[in-house]
Amino acid sequence: MLIIIIGIYLVITFIITILGIEHSSEGYKIFLISLIFTPLVGLIYVLKERRRATKISYYYCDKCDYVYPVKMKYCPVCLEKSEKVKLVKYESPHKLSEVYTNLSLA
């Protein structure tokens, strides 16, 4: 009977780990939390992490009309032309597309 309970516990832990891997890349962390504490604590952790999404900032160059999803201070395309152009930071691509109509993605 104890072996059956342990088996069910491990199966539930694996299922929660698989669900967590789909939403984040912390599979080992989710597995250990579910195994050491309980699968219920692991499920709460997965649901909490799912709601907290990472924000992506976009950086736009006014001169060459490129958009970069990586944090940079100056435009690399303009730096190749020996010009220092500061990039403008936007939190949402929707705001960027409302302001600028003709964009190129880098």
Describe this structure in words.
The N and C termini lie far apart (60 Å). The model has no long low-confidence stretch (mean pLDDT 79). The protein folds into two domains: 50 residues, no CATH class; 48 residues, no CATH class. The protein is rod-shaped. It is an alpha+beta fold.
Could you list some keywords that capture this structure?
4 strands, single chain, 10% strand, 106 residues, alpha+beta, rod-shaped
Percent range for helical residues? 40-55%
Number of domains: 2
* Low-pLDDT segments: none
Number of helices: 5
Q: Name the helix and strand elements from N-terminus to C-terminus, one letter apiece.
A: HHHEEHEHE
Major sheet:
4 strands, mixed
Spatial strand sequence of the major β-sheet: 3-1-2-4
Tell me the β content: 5-15%
How many DSSP E strands?
A: 4
User: Could you say which overall geometry the principal axes of the C-alpha atoms support?
Assistant: rod-shaped
Distance between the termini: 60 Å
**What Rg, in angstroms, do the CA atoms define?**
23 Å
Name the average pLDDT.
Answer: 79
Helices and strands: which structural class? Answer: alpha+beta
